[in-house]
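Pipeline run #58 for the internal structure catalog. This entry was flagged by the ingest filter as a single-chain record with no existing model, so it goes straight to prediction. Upstream metadata was stripped on purpose; only the residue string is passed forward. Reviewer on rotation: M.T. Logging verbosity set to normal.
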Amino acid sequence: MTHILLVPNALKGSLTANEAKTAMEAGVRNACSDCTIVSRPIADGGDGFAEIIGGESGTETVSVEVHDPLGRIVEANFSYNAGDSTAMIDVASACGLAYLKESEYDPLVTSSYGVGELISQVLDLNISHLIIGIGGTATNDAGIGMAAALGVRFLDMAGEEIKIPAGDDLGRISRIDMSDFDPRLANVTVDALCDVNNPLLGEKGAAHVYAPQKGASKEVVERLENGMQHLVTLLSLDLGFNLAHAEGAGAGGGIAAGLAAFLNASLRKGIDMVIEQLHIDDDLDAADLVLTTEGRLDSQTLSHGKAPAGIAIQARDRNIPCIAIAGEIEVNEENNFQDVFTAVFSLCPGPVSRDMAMQQASIYLEQITRQAVQCFLAGKNMNIKQRVHNDT
């Protein structure tokens, strides 16, 4: 009997990880009626992380009101486990890009303030461990908005407090005052799960790599880069932190750096902790085939610690084939997907528009999963026949 492990990541804009799971399960059943299926939807610290981890561990979901990246009131969710005093949040639930219309994208004015509000309300539950998933943000403020909501005061040259700081305020800060910082955080262990491993500064940093995706022009990118460089200098002088090149510090528009500096958070690879929390190691040990998904497979998938690559590496180390299905695949000589994945399948059955692909994602994913499993089984049967032929 063939054991198939499904480890779907969300296809951003079209399917959540759980929706992808449903489509893939149907595809496997259509390809192989006697295959056993184990499904483990994942998130690597980006959108949906708290839901994925919370759903598996039997925690409750709590809804609270916070401000979105442009200061509008929205409802954000977090997961809470009273048994072990642990809470899990996604920063995207407060400052996610999904809250904005494309015409509203502007990392100079968006703020992570709502993330701090969310953390503050989580602290009301007297937790001892906070796990924060980072990714999918509309911000590039290095977490100063978040920190301000938790009592950190950012003062300008005139000594005036910048009340709700955003990306454009990074260069205005003259002094950081921690005297009113929320004291409850002193008793909380914070793990920040990064969905990428980019540093805060430089060509591979938060501004240069991700700000353009949030509406930044070249001029704005340089302005944000200079502002974050200024913040790094202040953090070093005022708090003794130097996070310019720390792996993962650029995640979430630099929120990872802010969490490390102000909340003393440990920066961890999101997929590593997800594998640990969901006990995916055990599922991998029993699998004959692993299938995973991603909205876009590109250079960042391999080089920046994205979830599908993390799963594929775990499978490869066990000599288990891993097939990836992606909505978009960036093909160039630098992307050696074959070093990690056994095969890569396009979600789309042929030339279709991006809108059509997103609208029909569930149908396409079911069909491609069926085809991928059929290909695997055909190859497996051929190997069996070849061995029998050689033995005789």
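catalog note: The chain has two domains: 3-42+279-391, 56-271.
catalog note: Residues 361-391 form the longest helix (31 residues).
status: ready for reviewer M.T.
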